[in-house]
Amino acid sequence: MSVSGGFDGYCRRDAWCPVRIVLSNDGPDVEGELHILESYSFVDAPTAAKPVSLPSHSRKAYFIYLPPIGWSPYWKIRLVADGEVLVEQRFSLRVVGGVDPLYVVVGEGAGNLNFLTDVAPPGTSGRVAYTSLDDLPPDPLGWEAVDLLVLADADTSALSLDQRRALETWVAHGGHLVVIGGSGGERTAAGIAGLLPVTVGPVRSVDSLWALEERLGVVLPPGPYILTEATVREGEVLLKQGDLPLIVRRAYGSGVVDFLAFGTGADLFTRWEDGARLWSSLLETTGSPPPRIAFRQGYPAMEAVGSIPDLVAPSVLHLLAFVLVYTLLVGPVNYLVLKRLDRRELAWATIPLLVLAFTGCAYLTGFQIRGRTPIVHRLVAVRVPPGSDVGRVTAAVGIFSPRRATYDLRIAGTGVYQADWDFYGADSRTDRADRVMQEAEGAHVVGVRVDVGGIRPFIAETYADVTPIEADLRLTPRTGGFRLEGSIRNGPIRLTDAVLIVGYEEQRLGDLEPGAEAAAQLDLYASVRTTPGGPPTLAGPYGWGDLPERILGQGEYWTDRDLYRKYQFLSALFPYSGPGLGPGVHLVGWAEEGPPAVEVVDRPSRQRVTALYVYDLPVAMPEEDIGLSIPPSLISCVPEEEDQRAPYDPYIGPHQSVIFRCTPWVAIRIAQVEEMEVTLQGSGEVEVSAWDWEKGDWTVVGTGWGRFTLSSPDAAVSPAGAIRLRVRTGAVPTTIERLEVAIEGQR
Questions:
Q1: Which of 353, 294, 309 is nearest to 563 (CA)?
Q2: 521 in Cβ contact with 557 (< 8 Å)
Q3: Does 631 lie in the same domain as 722?
Q4: C-beta separation of 380 from 610 below 8 A
Q5: Do 110 and 176 reside in the same domain of the chain?
Q6: For the whole model, what pTM was predicted?
């Protein structure tokens, strides 16, 4: 057995982690299971398992995916057959923080890229992992920890079909792929030609890379240099030397693919800082990927899963009537009947019989209410990038049992683990463990024990094929903002209560039948939202705080059972200070169908599905260079540190700091910033500073609350359009009620 954990040992704490196991068998045939166990506090907690079949004299590779539940770096893996451990091996992982970037390098042509640790965003610590094509996982879940993938002189034709699909899906959902040309450009592009912005041709030798020297302001060693000739197929030329494109970029879904015609080995850059400049120019000019939709709060998720549509408790009147009849029969009626018969001594028998009868009646009533078959309740969120036909699925799956029983479940997709929401006292670390078998066709959850009337929840995460929404949208600049106009054509799924969300603004589209078309028209100006019939209200402090209410619209969330379930579901996904949907144009709607498929093995069951679909829509912008005013509704501000995203008010203690990263929507990024205003409202004592990207230090913008104008606005915006603001408190606790940024400049 040989084990490769993560990417060169690196895994991100809040993402699925791939583990590759290679088994060689020189003995008799083996039919067994691989068990992976987390080692912590001298306890081995089973986490996942996989069936294996090893014929004699065979060698096979398997992938197991560790769930994103915050784990220890120490692990064991065992091969078990017929209850016997045939081989066991320990391995360790290097855990990367939630905001620290992970850069993965594959192939020999990239050279030493350790300087990428120096081009990580401020406040983070980058990690560089060197791995092989074989270690790239075939499931896109295993890619979610990666921020950047560099392919250089690697024969991508050796990638399996599943690996290629996983790579394409990862890029479409926000990944950044850089393909290095040079002498190995053709073999590197061989298996991924459909992703590239260029058509790769033969190599050419040039004496110098003067265009690159001018771009970076560096002096390169004397040539010759080997370049890969390329014809632009779909994308934007970022750097050109004569008739040769040197750097070409393509937007692919929510992600980016860069092609570099030249190699980046040790013969190109002799100084560490020169290489860092090239990669800084690539990394700092891409927008942030959209935030992943995930369950960020356990209690509302538990409430949503437990609110099953078919299960309705008896009304209070029914319960009172039952108690009243019971009391009358056991007491006065029983006494009067026995008195009339002159057999009052029989009370010792009639009272127990009446108690038993009513107990049986109560039991049968409860049995009828619960039904006879288990109910599989699925709450599903599907996010689809622009133009993609693959959606990222996050689902809470609850199995309700009318009686004490043990079930086996089959859930489409590998990413399944037991939720640690503590429904009925289950041990969330040791009880979830080896019951989840990761098989080729999905997850087989074995031996799920559920008590009478109990619910056992699981989290299922996967990628599934969906039909994209057709959208013809355009942003037209107006004085002080934009107007969004165009049309949206629905796919084959009926969407109810659809809403178009852009920043702080939304347009309610109602129910969209399959194939129906809706007109979009939305003005994007205001930085405050107005409640119909009421006074203006401030927007959420980070831009998206009231997202559940905006998706659902007005309604009685606490009295309407269906609305209550949806509201709790949304509150679990989008807490008050969470990242929300991110910048862009989003179509959000509800459906009564959605992945993943769930089957109760060898038992009939009832299925109940509530699905939330989030489509990120492509939008056209005018190509001419014009002046733009970007309102706060199109600039997303969130804390950089994940642990600062509290699920309650944005509270900051005395003498503390919180750093916010504000990002304009990438479609309206401007090249020259002429004016920037920061609006801050709340209670307490504060000092607000902006990060100067040119000096690499903080510049105080102002103290107290109000609206501040930056003296050097262009220096406060990175090449990627990011703005960093630091709010530092004084001697008293502080609550931020409003944080907004507005920008004016030239496109």
A1: 309
A2: no
A3: yes
A4: yes
A5: yes
A6: 0.87
